[in-house]
Amino acid sequence: MTALALTDTQLDLLAAAGGAAPSLHNSQPWRFCPTADRHGLQVRIDSSRAVPITDPDGRALHLSVGAAVFNLRVAAAQLGRTATVRLLPDPADPQLAAELDLSAPAEDRRPFGPDLYPAIAHRHSSRRPFSNRDIPEQILGDLVDAARAEGVDLAVLEEYGVRRVLELTTEAELRTAADLARQAETRSWLRPEGPTADGMPPAVLGPQDHDARVPVRSFTGHPPTRPAPPTERFEPLPQLATLATRTDHPADWLRTGQAMERVWLLATVHGVRASVLHQAVEWPDTRWRLREPEDGPAHVQLVLRLGYGPPGTPSPRRPVGEILDDTHPAEPHLPTG
Ligand SMILES: Cc1cc2nc3c(=O)[nH]c(=O)nc-3n(C[C@H](O)[C@H](O)[C@H](O)COP(=O)(O)O)c2cc1C
After folding, report:
1. Which of 2, 3, 306, 336 sits a CA distance of 20 to 30 A from 293?
2. What's the CATH number where 49 sits?
């Protein structure tokens, strides 16, 4: 056990890594608080940043916070510490999503295979068309293994499965487009041009598919309520993958968020881009129909589109000072002798 408490600089590095995680509509629904002895970090859900009409159960909220937890684990390794994670450690306090004990030195500086730390800053949602280049089987296998290591099944879909998921996503996107309350909620996360700390500024929005085959989310509505990027031709048969769990509780959603981020960072290391197609997960019936019936009782939590293309545009983040609650300042060093 290392005797050293986390310094302010280390806490800032951890919070910046956690805060760089992906989140629904870039809502960033997290807060990080050092433990009283400064040997660990609590990850709290910030419910004021929930997206309640689109995400009434908090599934996407927990997924987003789970992704932040994974980034913290990567950053802990960067600091030479092992992160021992307890998910939802206090049943009386469901906003406490996780507690990380960071007191032990890292036995392995690369606990996730390749060094994932630089990928935290390079990972972005890539909402533009991808090329037709196939992702090598070896890389896809590594992504499946990465999700499995987090206790989550990543299914790389074959053509039939891709077409089925595209159909369900189109159905859900059209239903969302006709739902005025959801449309208003999504629009409330759109941000104007200029400095902002959260939400979706115009630069990060992608085009719609000219051939309407890849149903990327329209953040500006159907028809668009604001100037939208011109349509472009997407890849005819995207490479889709689903993340699924055996049970469907908040701890499963936090695990899925960690698996999503682990897969996404590893993909980034390999130059593979990703974006999320979440619309079908947001309606109970389309979410249920996302599962492959022959796979048994699986709960699909997320749909990822993978491929080769532009890296995506960095989206804004809240400053560390807003997401790090430092109520336990570092002990002053007492003079010895
Ligand atoms: C649970 C979840 C659902 C998401 N759903 C979508 C989606 O349907 N369409 C989309 O383009 N991006 C989606 N995203 C990506 C977020 O919009 C993105 O992570 C956020 O805007 C921050 O941008 P970044 O990923 O580039 O850092 C989703 C992300 C999460 C975690």
Report:
1. 306
2. 3.40.109.10
Same domain, 107 and 246: no
Number of domains the chain contains:
2
Task: Based on the fold, state whether residues 77 and 164 are members of the same structural domain.
Answer: no
Give the pLDDT confidence of 46-79 residue by residue, as tens digits: 999 999 999 999 999 999 999 999 999 999 999 9
141 and 260, same domain (yes or no): yes
Closest CA to ligand 1's atom 2: 24
Residues 6+ apart with CB under 8 A from 250: 58, 62, 88, 94
pLDDT category at 335 given cuts 50, 70, 90 is low
**Are 296 and 148 found together in one domain?**
yes
Q: Which atom of ligand 1 is nearest to the CA of 217?
A: 9
Question: Bridge partners of 273?
Answer: 307
Closest atom of ligand 1 to CA, residue 55 = 1
Does the residue 127 lie in any domain?
Answer: no
In terms of domains, do 153 and 302 share one?
A: yes
Ligand 1 — pocket residues by CB below 6 A? 22-26, 60, 63-64, 67, 124-125, 127, 200, 217, 275-279, 312, 315
Q: How far is the CA of 125 from the centre of ligand 1 (A)?
A: 7
Minimum CA distance residue for ligand 1 atom 8: 278
**pLDDT averaged over every residue in the chain:** 94
Nearest residue CA, atom 21 of ligand 1? 26
Which residues are CB-contacts of 75 (< 8 A; sequence separation ≥ 6)?
13, 14, 17, 18, 117, 120
Same domain, 85 and 144: no
Q: How far apart are CA 62 and CA 43, in angstroms?
A: 11
State phi, psi for 52 to the nearest 5 degrees: -70, -25
Angle CA(66)–CA(271)–CA(131) in degrees, nearest 5? 110
Range of the domain at 56: 8-120
Q: For residue range 252-275, what is the model confidence (pLDDT) as tens digits? A: 999 999 999 999 999 999 999 999
Instruction: Please check whether residue 75 lies inside any domain of the structure.
Output: yes
